[in-house]
Amino acid sequence: MPHINAAAALQISMLLFALPAQYFISQWYGTDSAERIQITERLIIASWRISTRSYLNLDAWAYCLKLWLSKTRICLYVELLILYFRNWYYGENKTKNGDNEAKPHSYLAESTHVQSPKPEYIKFCVGQVIIHRRFGYSGVIVGWDVKANTPEEQLQPRYPLVKQDLKYTPHYRILINKANGFGKSTAYVPEEEITVIMGLEVYHPDMETYFSGYDGSKYIMQPWLKKLYPHD
């Protein structure tokens, strides 16, 4: 259907009022009834020709239909392109995120590899409660690495030249006791900075994820954690 804009609407209105207007006009012009009828007929024919050129002409309708289809086709192409790029963008991001989830990093004693056999030089075990020698907070061990396992850019400011050797000593992941109000919930520390303490319970929101209970000397590992550290 052709698009009716303001100009077209005005034209239709004029046509609707043309016939009565023509009748009244014809009453004022002409000397007799025959002449008035002739004038009215000419006006009606002229109005009909104008209307047929605009709204009863097949070529005009075909042109409007062609224009509408072309606009619709363009809109369809645009929508298809938007849909394609949207699917491509989100699909690619989803794949990347999926890869990250499928391959979690192994930094900071969070590796999913089974730690077996356990080297003899690793003194402490998962589940033992510790106190930090320098900062004084307490916590529980939830994992260990045979040496510091963290991105190099984090190691450099943490271990200056005088402490470079610490990078190659065992490191432990700690859930910090909430009762200490230390401000941090976890820590990753070298072996020389901690010492084991007995009979102290740790409060942390993730305790039940890692442990099923406390026997007075150490926390009992959940089955999934025991599989990773079978010798602790």
UniProtKB/TrEMBL annotation:
Q: Which SUPFAM superfamilies match?
A: YccV-like
Looking at the record, the residues that make up the Hemimethylated DNA-binding domain are 121-222
Q: Care to name a GO molecular-function term for this sequence?
A: DNA binding
* SMART domains per the UniProt record, alphabetical: YccV-like
Write the record's keywords in alphabetical order, separated by commas: Signal
Tell me where the signal peptide lies: 1-18
User: InterPro entries given for it?
Assistant: Clp_protease_adapter_ClpF (IPR053189), Hemimethylated_DNA-bd_dom (IPR011722), Hemimethylated_DNA-bd_sf (IPR036623)
Return the protein name. FBX21 protein
UniProt organism field = Chloropsis hardwickii
Name the gene: Fbxo21_0
